[in-house]
Amino acid sequence: MPAPAWWARVRDARRPRWWRWAVWLAILAPGLGMLAAACSDLLLGSRWLGSNPVKQGEHVLGQLTIKYLVATLAVTPVRRILGWNWVQRDRRTFGLTAFFYGLAHFLWYVLLDIQLDAAELSDDLTKRTYIIIGFAALLLMLPLALTSTAASVARLRRRWVALHRWVYVVPILGVTHWWMSVKADVGAPTVFTATFAALLGWRWWYARREHSPHAHAPST
Amino acid sequence: MFTRPSVPPDLRSSAITPEPLYLSRREWLVAAGLTASALVGAAALFPARLDGQQGLGTPYGLQPDDKPTPWDDVTTYNNFYEFGTGKGDPVEQAKGFKPRPWTVRVDGLVGKPGDYAIEDFLKGPRVEDRIYRHRCVEAWSMVIPWRGIMLADVIKRAEPTAGAKYVEFTTLFDPARMPGQRASVLRWPYTEGLRLDEAMHPLSMLVTGVYGRDLPNQNGAPLRLVVPWKYGFKGIKSIVRIRLTDRQPSTAWNTSAPDEYGFYSNVNPTVDHPRWSQAKERRIGEFLRRPTLMFNGYAGQVASLYSGMDLRRNY
After folding, report:
1. Separation in Å, CA A180 to CA A8, A56, A129
2. Domain boundaries, chain A
3. Nearest to B115, CA basis, from B153, B75, B76, B158
4. Using a CB-CB distance cutoff of 8 angstroms, which residues of chain A are in contact with residue B257?
């Protein structure tokens, strides 16, 4: 049965001319806005981030990391389902953004939350399971960030694909870290767990479909 | 509205009537000695009056750098899961909550059980303004001028029997008025408990106001418990029942996570929460963290309640 006309129009959409600016705005605005709000709160006594700006900033940076992991993992499904192949080149941007927000979240915690308390940092990294898991997620993103360049893709070739499959583990560690840090407010981590389950589940389904005897033309 | 006058730590000598005119030397010495003893005794309980707290109440256990937390923070940064789990949820979701009329039942192992209207707690010579430190288990803290009465007065009025060993408190259960209770985030209704000697301690308060005004809904209107040497979650809000019992009451957070929240929940920098350290705290409004004090700075007044107890096991 042929697809409805409106669906064909959606799939035919091309990359808008403003797309590049929109992406830059989307990845920089939340971080810069939060930084400005934090500076204003801490130096000028405003209340943009509420009564506990250090904690709020830490949470916002963590959530931005998770959100950009969603964006990164959403690129391939969007390409396959909507046919928008032109988002492929934004996948690296989203992935690096997730890494930088994750790094910012960690630095914020070390510098502003525990304020370089070496004893507490070493306790946290050895005794607190949820922090160990979060730190592992960050460490896992590091080699992915370092090998994100075209030169790395060319140099590593098939090993690059194998290495970057590890990105699937990062959100699992990330939401686990989030779940384990809350007292009883599980609403938000639940939403993102479901989102990642859908994104990863789609990949698993798609891979199975590709390898079944009834597969259509192979994906590229 | 009667508030207990503060006791200034120093008397100016020019205020003392010259002794030959009114008192014999011996009488004057006796009077001076009694006054001095009273002052020393009072000073042990009320430290020197501090700047920036004029008219807010009597400071209890405060240091010179303990400034009262601004009203905005006290009334918009709240843990009150009956109105949502976000810190900003209670001020929004409790807007329409009506804390009147309100009845508090005092019963259990008492000679004189009864139902009290909230108005019974609001008036009378025993209402005081006290400035306490407040320490949340999440490692943030505030300094709050509470208005209320001593819990001991209410318990004494009820005449606990010889078998009464604990006091159990219960919050209102009404999901229609408290939307957070529609989800099983905690076991509802919220319950808390104290050992009888903790409840009878002069520092334990039943609070009806803050900053000289009626308690806002998000702070636990119209009646909440304040036990300043324990973590804030012991300060049960919107109390409808106070019951004397012989068994240790079950408490909401201990039921929710028994390995993280105990019955005593005394502020203790040497006993970590399983997921974070309790050695430091963030004073709301300040940037640098400060060291947490044993019993939240009230060790002088309450440590004797726990002598011989292993506070690591009894967390």
Report:
1. 44, 17, 8
2. 53-211
3. B158
4. 183
Which of B185, B275, B280 to mutate against chain A (most A CBs within 10 Å)? B275
- Picking from B282, B304, B169, the residue whose alpha carbon sits closest to that of residue B225 is B169
Range A183-190, long-range pairs (CB < 8 A, 24+ positions): A183/B85, A183/B138, A183/B257, A184/B81, A184/B85, A184/B185, A184/B186, A184/B256, A185/B85, A185/B86, A185/B185, A187/B85, A188/A63
CA distance A65 to A192: 12
B212 touches B58 (CB < 8 A): no
Evaluate whether ipTM surpasses 0.90.
no
- 315 residues of chain B, pLDDT tens digit each: 444 444 444 545 555 555 455 545 566 556 555 555 555 544 444 444 444 566 889 999 999 999 999 999 999 999 999 999 999 999 999 999 999 999 999 999 999 999 999 998 887 779 999 999 999 999 999 999 999 999 999 999 999 999 999 999 999 999 999 999 999 999 999 999 999 999 999 999 999 999 999 999 999 999 999 999 999 999 999 999 999 999 999 999 999 999 999 999 999 999 999 999 999 999 999 999 999 999 999 999 999 999 999 999 999
- The answer to whether A54 contacts B77, with C-beta atoms less than 8 Å apart, is no
Closest CA to A40 of A24, A64, A57, A58: A57
CA distance linking residue B89 with residue A75, whole number of Å: 35
Chain B residues 61-90 with CB within 8 Å of chain A? 72-73, 76-77, 81, 85-88
Contacts of B279 in chain A (CB under 8 A): 120
| Cβ pair A181:B275 closer than 8 A | yes
Tell if the CB–CB gap between A185 and B85 is shorter than 8 Å: yes
How close, in Å, is residue A7 to chain B by CA atoms? 40
How many helical (H) and strand (E) elements, i.e. helices and strands, does chain B have? 9, 13
CB of B255 less than 8 A from some CB of A? no
DSSP symbol at B110: B
- Bridge partners (DSSP) of residue B128 are B148
